[in-house]
Amino acid sequence: MITLGIDPGTRHLGWGVVRAEANRIFHVAHGVINAGATLSLAERLQIIDDQLGAVIEKYRPSVGSVETLFFHKDPQAAAKLGHARGVVLLNLARASVIVAEYPPAHVKRAIAGKGNADKRQVALMIRALLALPVTPSADAADALALAVTHCRRAPLDSALEARRSGLPAHPALAQLLRGKRRGGIIARGVHS
Which DSSP string corresponds to 45-58? Predict the structure, then answer.
């Protein structure tokens, strides 16, 4: 599964691509779309639209993992972030990419172990988890964190959904949900 994580922003939009195979996650690429502060909002959104479209076309993700909106102290900044997020969602929809959304605190908890982790902690953990030679910029690290969070979370979510709907889950996930022994350890859940 190829997952594209996107950290929306109108000046700097982070993106990160990872590939999940079985229970391993591999780094594919990451970057930041810099739209510039001197351009109008409409011009910045156009740059984001063009460049993000190129990223999606190049890496062809099956899932786009995007940060959910959160309460912001500055309503104007929240509105601008909403515009960037709209461009992101539109690009993913145009390419028929499934959208998964995660709150920032959930991503931080999944990557760094605590929901109030700072950007540096997240970036350092992403570097370690993906065996990157250098620490990515904060925007790219946040995007990679979104992608990794989805890769870790998706199997459990699909197993839980299958269980709720009465459909059979993947055998390994079914064992996990039933608390079967694995390697001498009782697996009762997935810890991120």
Answer: HHHHHHHHHHHHHH
Neighbours of 12 (CB within 10 A): 19
pTM value > 0.85: no
Please tell me which residue in 7, 21, 57, 74 is annotated as part of the active site. 7
Angle, nearest 10°, between helix axes 104-112 and 138-165? 100
Given the residues 43, 50, 139, 161, select the one marked as catalytic. 139
Instruction: Please say if 49 is a catalytic residue.
Output: no
pLDDT single digits (tens) 108-120: 999 988 888 888 9
Average pLDDT of the residues in 89-117: 92
Please confirm, yes or no, whether 21 is among the known catalytic residues.
no
* Cα–Cα distance for residue pair 152/146, rounded to 1 Å: 10
> Does the annotation mark 67 as catalytic?
yes
